[in-house]
Design goal:
This protein has 268 residues and is an alpha+beta fold. 39% of the residues lie in helices and 17% in strands. The chain has helices spanning 33-41, 109-114, 134-140, 146-163, 169-183, 190-196, 201-211, 216-234, 249-260; strands at residues 12-15, 25-31, 46-49, 56-60, 65-69, 72-76, 82-84, 90-93, 100-105, 126-127. Strands 1-2-9-4-7-10 form a six-stranded antiparallel beta sheet. Helix 6 crosses helix 7. This is Transcriptional regulator, AraC family. GO terms for molecular function: DNA-binding transcription factor activity; sequence-specific DNA binding.
Length: 268
């Protein structure tokens, strides 16, 4: 099962963060036993995710599993908790015994909350005990509800964020640039976004490389392709590539292949 092409969200329960974390954390999630029934009934055995440059915690509450970053397999033990960047394709092999709690950050969110630059995480599987206190992880692994786990991790993240509230100058600029790109329908190039923020192209490239780990042009391309592909899957008959700045369907298709390794024909 590949994200966007199919709905991999059906095997998780989700919670949004509180307002004070909403700019940094996209969501909290936990494996959904009821979702697994539908998942395996459809013949799926793995979930594939594209590059998004979103740091993600995986706290293992269940049994061992395997995760593949690009073409490298990693065995995650029953007591192992990890942090990955998702700067390449990620495939997790699903088992009925899975029980995993995840925290997905927006690009730059990990640094804003915990002071950890995501630019150092490329293609790495980081033991989460190097990032979070062992006592916190022990609390998360107790036989409690999903909602209780969200409250525990959220309280910790809020406390850490409060210590760093005045240290996110670069992140604010990057978030403002992403906001401008979204607001204008993903039609602007990097120079035009920089001009709207009274920045030079050199400056905006430096800020994106510092916060996210890649240039704005590359990141904007990921955003545009993901948004356009989602719209294509949902409204295939009325989809217009022009709405996302593509010249034609062929132009759009090339970006889809670049991001996902899949062709539009694979969605049929």
């Amino acid at each position: 099962m590949i994200e966007i092409f199919q709905n991999i969200r059906e095997i998780y329960d989700f919670r949004k963060p509180v307002e004070d974390l909403a700019h940094f954390v996209e969501f909290f999630s936990e494996s959904s036993p009821s979702g697994f029934d539908q998942y395996f009934a459809k013949g799926h055995s793995q979930s594939g995710m594209f590059a998004s440059w979103t740091p993600t915690f995986y706290i293992n509450l269940g049994t061992p599993y395997r995760i593949q970053l690009d073409k490298v397999f990693h065995h995650i033990g029953a007591t192992d908790d990890i942090l990955i960047l998702r700067n390449g394709q990620v495939t997790r092999h699903i088992l009925p015994t899975d029980l995993i709690f995840t925290v997905k950050f927006y690009p730059g969110g990990l640094e804003a909350v915990l002071g950890i630059s995501q630019t150092k995480l490329d293609h790495k599987v980081i033991p989460l005990g190097q990032v979070l206190p062992p006592s916190l992880l022990m609390k998360m692994k107790q036989p409690i509800t999903f909602t209780e786990r969200v409250l525990i991790i959220q309280e910790y993240l809020l406390l850490q964020r409060a210590k760093r509230a005045k240290k996110d100058h670069y992140l604010k600029i990057v978030n403002d640039a992403i906001g401008e790109y979204h607001t204008t329908g993903m039609q602007l190039n990097t120079s035009q976004v920089a001009e709207r923020l009274f920045l030079t192209s050199k400056s905006i490239n430096r800020y994106f490389s510092k916060v996210i780990g890649l240039p704005p042009k590359a990141y904007f391309s990921i955003l545009r392709t993901r948004a356009a592909l989602t719209a294509f899957i949902q409204t295939r008959e009325t989809f217009d590539p022009w709405d996302y700045g593509y010249y034609d369907l062929s132009h759009f298709s090339k970006d889809v292949i670049k991001l996902t390794g899949q062709r539009l024909s694979d969605t049929l």
